[in-house]
Amino acid sequence: MKIFNRLATISVASAIVAGTVFGSAQPTYASGGGQASNQNDEVSYMGNTKNPKNVIFLVGDGMGPSYNSAYRYFADNPETKEMDKTAFDDYLVGNQRTNPDDHKENVTDSAAGATAFSSGHKTYNGAIGVDGNKKDTKTVLEQAKENGKSTGLVSTAELTDATPAAYAAHVDDRDKKDEIAKQFYNDKINGQHKVDVLLGGGAEYFGKENGNLTNKFKKDGYDIVKNKSQMQNSNSKQILGLFADNDMPLQIDAPKQNPKLVDMTDTAVNKLKQNDKGFFLMVEGASIDKSGHPNDVTGVMSEMQGFEKAFDHAMQYAKENPDTLVVATADHSTGGLSIAKGKDYVWNPDAIHSMKHSGSYMTKQIASGKDAAKVIKDGYGFDIKQNQIDKINKEAKKLKDLDEDDKKYEDQLQKLQDAVQKPINDKSNTGWTTNGHTGEDVNTYAFGPGSERFRGNIDNTDNAKNIFDFFKNDQSS
Ligand SMILES: [Zn+2]
Fold first, then answer.
1. 182 and 243 together in one domain
2. What is the domain extent for residue 133?
3. 101 marked as binding residue
4. What spacing in Å lies between the alpha carbon of 111 and ligand 1's midpoint?
5. Are residue 364 and residue 329 in the same domain, yes or no?
6. Which amino acids does the record list as binding Mg(2+) (predicted)?
7. pLDDT values of the chain reduced to their tens digit, one per residue, 477 residues
8. What separation in Å is there between the alpha carbon of 288 and the centre of ligand 1?
9. 332 is in an annotated binding site
């Protein structure tokens, strides 16, 4: 008991571990901690089964468990002997299964994963808000709107990309992005637009070529913003922020006027919290996955950092507003990231810290015809051997000889990116096994009323099932 009390005051995560190791009845000390403490005591929320009024659901796309561990090495202060915790660590409550219900594939994509999160239905890869029979599945965002709450979707990807799309659109194929954007505008609940706050990339799908959706949203009272200062000066409760034609640039490569994920999260919460009935907000760190696919460790760390800041910001709001539940998880892992490769028991994040640009950024520059040696010199924080520059030039030349529509183009682009990234993957000693997704269970972090429902090994559909339950028993609406 002595041990248990000491641990319970340290952190939520330690308390869970203690419960597992010593076999104590978890609810006893979770609620015990609550009785003995004031509202600032983190442990008091663990046993809180009350319904949250507000839910902030954060998705680190592709953020498998090795991403969380690698990021801990990366974020560690080297001046201190012990490895520092990340903002996530104290709120680990368990993990979750991610497999889709697909007749060919048993490793999920982001569409099936997001549909599980948004609606509680297992479905096939590529499905957006529809089940295996292509029937629409009701989402927690739609339920929130029915309850009179405010709603928001924030992503570093296109807003029409799989994860945000699966909360407010229903199409049988994730590539139908024009249709997804149209549904964001056209589909209404109680005469109102489904989503009050839309912040991310994907301007391409909201312009003239797709029914002038931006203008239509504007006529209906949405502020339309294109950069950080416009976003922060917006006074409307409803907003459409489109900060890139397609995906937003990675944080490490982005111009200053671009909002970061934490800035978008802050704006979203400030607008949504004005509704007395509460809100539902989904925040996606999309480019963790988009960097994992091409095995870009610099991009992955840049986006993990951005996601951690957004999570931390949401947590601060939840600590000041005890009616708010925060859940953070991933839809799957990507790339088979491994912390060390080969014979050495060493992973070297310092090399990644020295980088000035992501591998994806440098690859794009070289593919567009810029001088490889200069791009590498400007992007790398350490010297690259001439034979590696020669190899990059060789792959760039092969790419140049291909037409962009050629089937081999994407493969060759990845070969160029592999050559561009070899020095940093080698110097940091980072391993990768695939350019696709992998099927391991992913971590779940949760805090606030209802967070205990996310404990242990749960299924990805349980996220939606829990949130539906909260909204069904909602006293605030
Ligand atoms: Zn992916």
1. yes
2. 2-337+436-472
3. no
4. 9
5. no
6. 61, 161, 163, 284
7. 333 333 333 344 444 443 333 333 333 333 333 333 344 444 444 545 579 999 999 999 999 999 999 999 999 998 999 999 999 999 999 999 999 999 999 999 999 999 999 999 999 999 999 999 999 999 999 999 999 999 999 999 999 999 999 999 999 999 999 999 999 999 999 999 999 999 999 999 999 999 999 999 999 999 999 999 999 999 999 999 999 999 999 999 999 999 999 999 999 999 999 999 999 999 999 999 999 999 999 999 999 999 999 999 999 999 999 999 999 999 999 999 999 999 999 999 999 999 999 999 999 999 999 999 999 999 999 999 999 999 999 999 999 999 999 999 999 999 999 999 999 999 999 999 999 999 999 999 999 999 999 999 999 999 999 999 999 988 765
8. 9
9. yes
Same domain for 442 and 352 = no
> What CATH number did the domain enclosing 257 receive?
3.40.720.10
Same domain, 11 and 155: yes
Q: Tell me how many domains the chain contains.
A: 2
**φ, ψ (nearest 5 deg) of residue 265:** -65, -45
Q: Where are the beta strands (DSSP E) in 3-131?
A: 54-60, 92-97
444 shares its domain with 417: no
Q: Is the same domain home to 236 and 276? A: yes
From the list 265, 458, 322, the residue with the least C-alpha distance to 42 is 322
220 is in an annotated binding site: no
CA of 287 to the centre of ligand 1 (A): 9
Asked whether residue 403 is marked as a ligand-binding residue, the answer is no
Same-domain check for residues 424 and 440: no
Q: φ, ψ for residue 293 (rounded to 5)? A: -55, -50
Q: Are 285 and 309 in contact (CB under 8 A)?
A: no
Comparing C-alpha atoms, which of 376, 375, 396, 394 is closest to residue 385? 376
Give the integer Cα–Cα distance in Å for 187 and 168: 8
Q: Which of 24, 31, 110, 476 is catalytic?
A: 110
Is 188 part of any domain?
yes
Task: Give 390 Cα–ligand 1 centroid separation in angstroms.
Answer: 31
Residue type, 32: G
What is the 280 CA–ligand 1 centroid distance (Å)? 24
Q: Among this protein's residues, is 110 annotated catalytic? A: yes
